[in-house]
Amino acid sequence: MAFRGLQAESATQAKVHENVANELNTLVISPFSEWAQGYKDRIKHTKSTVLDSWLRNYEQAQADAQKLKQQYLAKTRRADDAEDE
């Protein structure tokens, strides 16, 4: 008799645990998984946009530095030529 009572109580508790697990899955895990995937997609897009922007800025700064270097060399040549005359 006691065994049948424990067995019935265990079956009831199993149903309760199953219901809680289903509610957690429905109310927490599924929405969080959707949010996490959306966040991953947003970060991926943002990261590539930011990196592209940084790369363009770097390349522009590199071109500006090269232009300034050429101007500097031209001016020093002119200064040397003027000094020689």
Supply the key terms.
85 residues, mainly alpha, rod-shaped, 0% strand
The gist of it:
With 85 residues, the chain is an all-alpha fold. The protein is built from one helix and no strands.
Task: Give the DSSP E fraction (strand runs of 2 or more residues).
Answer: under 5%
Order of helices and strands: H
Helicity range? over 70%
Largest beta sheet, briefly? none
According to DSSP, the number of beta strands is 0
Low-confidence runs of at least 5 consecutive residues: none
> What is the average per-residue confidence, as pLDDT, rounded to a whole number?
91
Please render the helix and strand layout as text.
Layout (H helix, E strand, L loop, with lengths): L1 H83 L1
